[in-house]
Amino acid sequence: MRFVFLAVLLALAPAATAEPVVALVGGRVLPVSGPALEKATVLLRGGVIAAVGADVAVPAGARVIDASGLTLTPGLIDAFSGIGLPARPAGGPGGAATNAPDPLAAEADVLDRVKLADALKARDAGITTALVVAPDGIAGGRSVLLNLAGETAEALVWRQPAALHLHLSTLRRQYPASLMGTVAWARQALLDARHQQAQWDDYERDPRGKERPRFDASARAWQDVLAGRLPLIVTCSRLNDVRRALALGQEFGVKVVLAGVPQAWEVADLLKKAGRPLLVTTNYDPPRAAGFSFGGGPDEAKEKADIEAAERNPGKLHVAGLRFALVSAHGRDFVAGIRKAIERGLPQEAALRAVTLGAAEALGIDDRTGSLEAGKAANLVAWSGEPFAKDTKAKLVFVDGERFEPEDKPAAPGGEGRPRAGEEVAR
Amino acid sequence: MNALLLCALLAAAPAAGETTAIVGATVLTVSKAGNLDKATVLIRDGRIAAVGADVTVPAGAKVIDGAGRFVMPGIIDAHSHAAIEDNVNECTDVVTAQVRIADVIDHRDVNLYRQLAGGVTAINVLHGSCNAIGGQNAVLKLRWGVDDPAQLVFAEAPRGIKFALGENPKRANFSAPGPRRYPATRMGVAEVIREAFLEAKAYRREWQQHEKKKAAGRGAIAPVPPRRDLRLETIADILDGKVLIHAHCYRSDEILMLIGLAEELGFKVRTFQHVLEGYKVASEIAKHGAGASTFSDWWAFKLEAHDAIPFNAAVLHSKGVVVSLNSDSNELARRLYWEAAKAVRYGGVPEQEALKMITLNPAWQLGVDHLVGSIEAGKQADLAVFSAHPFSPDARVEMTLVDGVVRFDRAQDLAARSAATAAGGAQ
Fold first, then answer.
1. Mutate to test the interface with A, among B79, B87, B114, B130 (most CBs of A within 10 A)
2. With a cut of 70, which residues of chain B have pLDDT below it?
3. A179 and A241 belong to one structural domain
4. By residue range, what is the domain housing residue A34?
5. What confidence tens digit (pLDDT) does each residue in B325-365 have?
6. What is the mean pLDDT of residues A284-305?
7. All domains in chain B, ordered by first residue
8. Residue among A184, A238, A291 whose CB faces B230 most closely
9. Total Cβ atoms within 10 A of residue A107
10. Is A210 in the same domain as A164?
């Protein structure tokens, strides 16, 4: 109800007559696409970055914000996120999952399940863009790319559907309940999609004398993948899942994107050769399924070693010279995960790249976001200190040029993070 | 963990083109040549180049001192569940011919190394016995140290599949969540197998008609092929003799049932696995042409496994059945040579024939007896070097070679252990 009330208020607000120009002045700017700039200006016009540099002239009428003492970076992109979705069940990618509406419905849209108001809370951590992925099921459904400004899907959705998902996971009471079943299921799904395509092509070419093929929504979704219209993101939790995903892609001529891959560094050479985008998890200790064990219970020592190895994974991938995105992978605190990767050997600069431009590259949106460059979306964060450091806060977050102040947000839900007038520093 | 350390050492072992000679050993060839005293086994390019007392060792050959040692063909385990990632069973359906063990091999399962330490060089990795028609197997060579599961695969081995009869597919001894699955009786199991083959025959007919139509319609647009069904395709491949059936069974009545079904529907059973009541129907098994892969003296672990005798292998052998002794266990697999010794103890099977039960006979059962299973010129150099005759209680494996490459070396293993201990309990 509050939401509706707010919407009414917004509708009554006077519309801007010209595109507002905002200048963030005097901050330390980390554009990611280029070297760091001290005491530089970032000029935003409407929802787009107009200029970045040390000697950018601030046009008359611009709203000037004093950013001295702040560090400006592109908005964080979480390229494999659970924002706006209910808390994750035990299992999730890599574990047993049961509560997906239909765990095998490749055509299901995650957008139908996202609570946008919840998703917007991620902005407080400096996240401006997120690929929202269902954590459950085998075919987790089609993900949606959100840019976190506005209130409605019309404003938030950047790409829909954004990708098709396959979790190399298992179900509990239905097929596939084993990893080999999951691989076999995916293989059959792709074959069926190809078959349906052939049937429809044949029918459309000349329908006379032919029975109409049946419509299969799931096959249609997979056809988008086969035709290269939609990326296939495969969630890999085991080392050999990487090979399974690549082999499946090769079998069907599909260029897969690999997500999760907590032990990716061990197959760095293979990944380098494959050249596929990597969405590397910072959720180092995800809920684990009680996997099948042929004599012997859970191995706690191994689990601990696995967690530690996963924490070192991003740093080792960097050393190996691989490009990748760091993702929350449904972890609760993305920034904490990034910080851990830095503590375990990933240079801070590489970490920043992995959650901005690197993530944009992995999602194929680096032409429109991911760095502070003229012409890109006005998504940026002004940090109180070194990004990702423990005490650093996101002081200001701009999404599509819209300004939010995480720290000063009112306590009442529904109105959080809205820009408030009269806070700009006049000059 | 020492095994992992060793794996690095061993992977760097002999490359192709190298010549190795095991000199001065007692060689149990398991061929017409019988046992040879103070003999030499010459290995070139991973194959046995020569074997005999008068073989000259070429200059530059790597020499392994065999004095006082016994060399036998690498042991082959016709029933294993090692190196399977996640569930051994896809229990959700009674026919799951579409799933493949080859999709879920974990090349780092330490059991592979432990089994090498028991002289094992090849294993038949089978789907579990949950379903009347289970998944497809993977025959592996224990090339411990390779960094890709595909490199473990015994490429020349024909495809195989697991069948299961009796209590497991009818689920007599356990309850799975959800409604009770059909079938719940042995007659139901028979019916399910019959149905599957009839369905596969119809499927094969559909494809044959399509191929005929395609061939006839020169120049015209090719007709849309039928839907590929990986489950039925596999069963059709059984009918075409491309896939070997390994049928889990215990009771004589169900063995006769499957032989009857095979004759009715036109397929062959390659092995009856466990087959504890095989001695009651040995002539019928021989007449069908199936092999038997049994335990030496393990039984009474469930009702259908009660009417067993330790003479089972001997009786089956005496009736002309190709018999192997298997482990079905990561633990028992490490000392299959003593299992073979029991065939001498119970029923007086000659030494050579008992040795065959863990070498040449399982090789035949897996369709690779022309490549492995005996020490003969031209065969792949899969060898186990023992400290004493393998049937002796003092016997232990000193060295195991796969394709001429030393994959286990007891002396090296012990040295690595001491080194690790000296280093302060390193990983």
1. B87
2. 1-17, 176-178, 219, 425-427
3. yes
4. 2-74+380-425
5. 999 999 999 999 999 999 999 999 999 999 999 999 999 99
6. 71
7. 3-73+405-426 (2.30.40.10), 75-369 (3.20.20.140)
8. A184
9. 18
10. yes
* H helices, E strands: number in chain A: 11, 16
* B100, B148, B330: residue with CB nearest A184: B100
Residues A64 and A127 in one domain: no
For A170-180, what is each residue's pLDDT tens digit? 998 899 999 99
Would you say the pTM of this structure is higher than 0.90?
yes
Pick among A104, A169, A178 to test the B interface (most B CBs inside 10 A):
A178
- B224 contacts A202? CB cut-off 8 A: yes
Q: Looking at B185-277, list the stretches that DSSP marks H as alpha helix, in order from N- to C-terminal side.
A: 186-216, 230-239, 252-265
The token duo for B288 is 């069908």
DSSP 8-state assignment for residue B278: G
ipTM: 0.94
Which of B89, B103, B223 shows the shortest C-beta gap to A244?
A: B103
The verdict on a CB contact (< 8 Å) between B230 and A291 is: no
User: Closest to B99 (Cβ–Cβ): which among A181, A240, A294?
Assistant: A181
Neighbours of B19 (CB within 10 A): 18
CA distance B225 to B212: 11
User: Do A156 and A188 fall into the same domain?
Assistant: yes
Residue A8 CB contacts under 8 Å (≥ 6 apart), including other chains? none
CATH of the domain at A414: 2.30.40.10
At residue B210's C-alpha, the angle toward residues B205 and B211, to 5°, is 100
For chains A and B, what is the number of CB pairs under 8 angstroms? 103
Residues A289 and A149 in one domain: yes
